Structures are given as C-alpha cells and as structure tokens.
Amino acid sequence: MRLCLLLSLLLLLPALPHVIGQPVKSKRPKEPGENKIKPVNKKVKPKAPKTKERESVDSSLKSQSILTQVMDKGHFQKLAATLSLAAGQSIELRCKGNNVTWNYPSYLDTFKDSRLSIKQLDRYSQLILANSTAADTGEYSCWLQLCTGNKCRKDETKTGSTYIFFTDKEELFVPTPSYFEIVYLNPDKPAVIPCRVTTPSAKVTLHREFPAEEIETDGTDIIYDAKKGFVFQHPTSDHKGIVYCKAESQGAPQISIKYHLLYVEVPRGPPSASISVSPGGVSDRVRVICTVLGEPHVDVTFRWQYPGQESQRPVTIQNFWRLINRGIGHTTRISKSVLLVEDFEDIDVGNYVCIAQNLQGETAVATKVELQ
Fold it and tell me: How far apart are CA 173 and CA 230, in angstroms?
C-alpha cells in the first residue's frame, strides 16, 4: 500500500529538468544590444589576384622576355638594358617567335660582315656574332612581326633590346670609317657629337680645337650619354667650329676623330625655289636655272615642264648641289637644276616650270622665255 501511495504522489508532481545536478536557470529580460556580435581582432590573409589580373600586370614586362643570351652549357640569361663584354668574344642571342626581325649596328650590313649570322628556326631566331670587335658596340634588338597577307607590323608587346659594350683598352672610342665628320647644328632640335665609347666607365670630355679649350658639360644644355655621345640640347651659332673628344680609362688618354660643327638656320618646309634665264636669242643656247636654298642634309629633287616636251624636243638637264657659308656662321645647301636648250627656236618659246620637292612638300616656279 505504501508503494502504491508513493507512486501516485510522484505522478502528481511537476516535471523536473532532465539533467540531474544542474540548477534550473531562470529567464530574465535581455539588455539592449546583448545579442549583437562583438568584433574580433582576427588577421585575414589577402587573397592572391586572379590569373587574368596577374597576366595584365605582367604584360608590361613581356618586352624584355623574348630576348635572351645563350651562356655556357646551354644556359640562358635574360638581358638587361646594357651588357659589357670583352672584345674578341663571340655572342649568341635568341629571340622567341617564328617571325622575328633584328636590328644591330648598321655597319655590319654595310660591309656584309661574315662574322654575323642570323637564322630563323621554328620557335626562335638566332643571332651569332663571332670574334667581336670594339666597332660592334651598339644596340641589338628584336621584335615579333604580325603579318596579315603581305602586310606586316611590329608587335609592340613582344620586343627585346640591349646595348652591348665590347670593351677594348686599345680602342676606347667606337671606331668609325672616316677621320672627320660634319655635324649640323639646327636651332630647333638637339645635335649629337657621336663620340661613343666601348667602356661605359670611361671619363669623356669635349674639347674645341681653336681656341684650344675644354667645353663644359653642364648636364642640362650639354650632356654626355655613353650610348650616343655629347648632346647639345639647344644648339646656337656659338657652338660652331671643330671639336674632338678625349677619353680616359686606366691608362693614357685617347683622342677621337674630329667633328666639324656647322650651324644651320633655314626654315623647315617645302623648298624655297627661284628660277632665272641666261641671256639667249635665235640660234643661241638658252639655260633655265632653278635654285633652292635649304638645310645641308635635306635632299631636293627636280622636275621640269617646258614647251617642247610633248614633241620630245631635245634638252639637257643637270642637277648638282654644294654647301655655302652665308658669312655669319650659317651653312646652307644650294641645290640647282639647269635645263639647257640648244639652238633655241620658235617651238621653244613659252613657259618653263620647275618643280622642286623635298620630304616636306614641293614648290613650283615658272618663267616665260621668248625669242630676242
């Protein structure tokens, strides 16, 4: 009976927590903001950029990636902007691509030097220069050609370039085929005295022959670049004259060839032409002269139109040019074309037109020739 009474009482009691030994927690109202997530000072590693983004960043570096130098035992080395090698060494360069164009010192082409060989293979082009000399100093570059049909263009994203100094203690200056050069000084563009050196560490100075003096290199108006020579940024007539360079590098100084600096002040543009006629008459020779004054290094071509042209009237045309000094240190080029008519007759009477042309354009001048 007692057992049954005890069981009945237990059934009437409220349910107790199922975890024994843990007190029952009473609920209370939450404070404002209690459930908010608290900030945690956790270090987060930055994500690596995607492959496409990485390629776009590195695209500017591809210009140097296609040109390499072949080293001993089949190793390859990417080339920096400059490279110094002792004269006498041979060098092999490779440029990646199946349609590669090379640029190198032009005199190697001028003399068709057999020491230079270029081969285009399936995946790269190979340039080999054997038994190098100081004269080989210069820029060596390559680029990939993109061709569509018969038209090709340079791929600017796939190029390579390096300037190689072939050092020679006996030849501090890069040898030239001549012993005297003319440098034209134009007021509207820099002028370069091209006394380049084979040893980049050589100390180089510029000197005037008369009066004998060293020309100061201030680094602003006159600067020196081992790859170019002395650069006159703003040439004036005061710079004209004969100059030379002197180089020193762990030994006796060496002297370069001489450079004759000629100042030029002629407006750039189409030729400035004039036309004149020598005295003539019946049964006489008549000469029509077309004259152009221009820059010393600018070539001028001539064309003629004259009365007897359609009937194939025989004439003689002679073209020539020479440099002239205008008396104030200015040097210009005078170009002439002379049209000669033998035994001037009625058929030769009329307008004679001279058309002078240069890279900037053409100019036509005319004169009327009559019997006297």
Answer: 13
**Over 229-248, what HEC string results?**
EEEECCCCHHHCEEEEEEEE
Q: Please list, in sequence order, all residues whose beta carbon lies within 8 angstroms of the beta carbon of residue 155, skipping any fewer than 6 positions away.
A: 143, 144, 145, 146
Confidence of residue 229 (pLDDT cuts 50, 70, 90): very high
Q: How far apart are CA 296 and CA 231, in angstroms?
A: 19
Q: How far apart are CA 266 and CA 292, in angstroms?
A: 11
259 neighbors 242 (Cβ within 8 angstroms): yes
pLDDT single digits (tens) 249-301:
887 899 999 999 988 766 678 888 999 988 654 457 899 999 998 888 889 99
CB 241 within 8 A of CB 208: yes
Measure the CA–CA gap between 261 and 267, rounded to whole angstroms. 19
Nearest residue to 215 via CA among 225, 205, 223, 224: 205
Structure tokens of 51?
């492959």
Q: Are 147 and 177 spatial neighbours (Cβ–Cβ below 8 Å)? A: no
